[in-house]
Amino acid sequence: MVLKTVEWKNNKVVMIDQTKLPNELVFVEFDDFNQVADAIKNLVVRGAPAIGVSGAFGLALAVLQSDAETKQDLISYLENARKILFETRPTAINLGWGLNKIMDVAKHCNSIQEIKESVIAEAKKMAEDDIEINKTMGKNGSVLFDNNDTIMTHCNAGALATVAYGTALGVIRATKESGKQVKVIATETRPIQQGSRLTAFELQHDGFDVSLIPDTAVGYSMANGLVNKVVVGADRIVKTGHVFNKIGTYQVATMAKQHGIPFYVAAPLSTIDLKSKADEVIIEMRKGSEVTGIGDKKTAPDDVNVINPAFDMTPPELITGIITEKGVVSSPYEESIQKLFDENN
């Protein structure tokens, strides 16, 4: 069974509740865009491509919820829903991309009925496109990996971070599908443990040879020759090639550089932000309780100060290549990334 992280069924949004993994595989249904906003904020759904599509589906629910009688009133209702959905998570650019794409479709329609039909159709198409984009990206990246490679990945950039198939894990899937034998080392990815809860679950579910390590064992694994290559996803890539991804990515990339291990990033063009500079990107800060305890178990003293950034920035000089659905680019990134978009138009 291929896991589908988020989909549209009977005018409802159906998601895997990722907060319940790996203990339970639970699907939740939403018929209100506010529920989708809460799901994004509370990590029921996470991963840049997945929240981009979830945002689009949230607006699809909003067109069904609205009782507007004019096009302008419906657009106003959608703009308010867009704002609520957008404010859930500020770092990943795919959320804004998905919401803006839906709003553009809505604004170009002539009637309420046309808006409803077109918005739902576009959101469903975005979900379908996500899978095809990931498969193409996987094939583009698979040529970079060799038979018997052991590939390290950080956080979860798999089917659970997308609609299905995955970005970084999509590359690993495509490598295996091309006939090469590969092993995977997954970092636990504290404090939410997306690596141990999600990546290890997903890869085991799909029959991969996967080993789990604590985040603090990245250097050990590399120094002892346990890793050949690294591939991670991204929540945002700016035009200079600076990559924003799950906290700890910068450390993995630095260690890889130290040990001469190729470090790749896999992300669709929708994750690339051509407008923002690296120092303009807002890093989401999350609640301290994620660090001071696990579930109901306290692991730190009361009232200790906590710094809990969700993401960090990896500079381009640490990145061997960026894998996209339009090909693989390398340094100098400002030129090679722009070329992807020039060729795309």
Automatic annotation (TrEMBL):
One of its GO terms (molecular function) is S-methyl-5-thioribose-1-phosphate isomerase activity. The keyword Isomerase applies. The record marks 155 as: Transition state stabilizer. It catalyses: 5-(methylsulfanyl)-alpha-D-ribose 1-phosphate = 5-(methylsulfanyl)-D-ribulose 1-phosphate. The active site is at 235 (proton donor). Substrate binds at residues 46-48, 89, 194, 245-246. It holds the Pfam family IF-2B. Its EC number is 5.3.1.23. The keyword Transmembrane does not apply. InterPro entries: IF-2B-related, IF-M1Pi, IF_2B-like_C, Initiation_fac_2B_a/b/d, M1Pi_N, NagB/RpiA_transferase-like. SUPFAM superfamilies: NagB/RpiA/CoA transferase-like. Catalyzes the interconversion of methylthioribose-1-phosphate (MTR-1-P) into methylthioribulose-1-phosphate (MTRu-1-P). NCBIfam families: eIF-2B_rel (TIGR00524), PRK05720.1 (NF004326), salvage_mtnA (TIGR00512). HAMAP family: Salvage_MtnA. This is Putative methylthioribose-1-phosphate isomerase. It comes from Nitrosopumilus maritimus (strain SCM1).
